[in-house]
Amino acid sequence: MSRNTYPSETIIKCCTNYRTGTPVTAIVKESGVPRSTIYYWLKKYNNEWFS
Q1: Dist. CA 17–CA 21, nearest whole Å
Q2: CA dist 16 to 2, 3, 25, 32, 49, Å?
Q3: For 51, which DSSP code?
Q4: Which stretch of DSSP H or E encloses residue 4?
Q5: pLDDT in tens, 1-51
Q6: Which of 10, 16, 30, 32 is the Cys-Cys partner for 6 at CB 3.0 to 4.6 Å?
């Protein structure tokens, strides 16, 4: 199983969309990133980038 790497722009966009109130389901459909990956990013980067 290979790991996908996503550009930092995608990570920032997904986290920003979530913080502005966009549901995770809509972010998944728009970006094509798996739901579990988005939740991982939110847990890992949310406090770091959006303090």
Answers
A1: 7
A2: 27, 23, 14, 16, 10
A3: -
A4: none
A5: 456 789 999 999 999 999 999 999 999 999 999 999 999 999 988 766 655
A6: 10
